Amino acid sequence: NVLGSHANFMGVHYHLGVLGNQILTRGAMRGSSNERRRVFRSESTESVRFTVVRHPISRLISHLRKAQNYPKEVRAQRGDWVEECIINGRTDPKWDSATRTKYKREFDIYINEIDSGRHSSYSEENPYLHPPYPVFPELIDFVMRHRGRDDKGNNGHWRPTIEWCDICQNDLDIIIQLEEEPEELMVLLDRLQMTQYKASFLSKHNSSSNKSASADEIKLYVKQLNREQIEYLNKMYAADFEMFGYDPIEMIA
Fold first, then answer.
1. 184: helix, coil or strand?
2. Is the four-CA dihedral 9, 11, 12, 13 of positive or negative sign?
3. Could you say which of 9, 13, 148, 199 is the most buried, measured as most Cβ atoms within 10 Å of its Cβ?
4. CA angle (174, 180, 182) in 5-degree steps
5. What are the tens digits of pLDDT across the range 8-63?
6. Cα–Cα distances in Å, from 159 out to 74, 85, 126, 243, 246?
7. Pairing between strand 16-19 and 22-25?
8. Angle between the 183-191 and 2-10 helix axes, to the nearest 10 degrees?
């Protein structure tokens, strides 16, 4: 019970770190010390440092759904990842030059006509437009091609949290799993002595959590992947899984 354990610690005024359902005192955290705690400008010694993390696969799914549900996002992110996902994932090397040119031209017209009010007709067999957005395996292949090679591989939507959030360097007091909101949020309110505002927080439920993929949804998406893709993601997010209390994909699928 997160809240119960937290209340017990609060009786002796420990700083807390929350990793999933596990609560640790700051002294139990590896390498923690007063010297390591980076002091920001005008930061009070009584300040509470916290962050909210999310299952890595849920972050990928959320970004993909945005392109799938909103055509404007397909156009906006075309050069970032969308077009490459579709073209690389669906181009048949057996196509002749005329077929390749025709399908690509139709794809370009579709993208350019988004929100224009015009709707040209397209070949029913054109794979670039059926569907006219990337699917999960295509996104993972894109990440695998670019990860560690260029800026496209460092996009924050798939970059491991530990690489951009400075979890250890900032010596955080509380880490909240988005999937456990609002329960773990109550830990933060308790720490800030703001439990009197609990009802207000609950009435303004974070819209992001409504978009988070559930464990069952993650299973469905993972089932679309091949073994190589699953192993790659497990390795890529190994530190995130361990640090934030999430199960590797094998344990989900």
1. helix
2. positive
3. 9
4. 85
5. 333 322 233 333 333 333 343 444 445 445 566 667 777 778 778 889 999 999 99
6. 20, 17, 32, 15, 16
7. antiparallel
8. 10
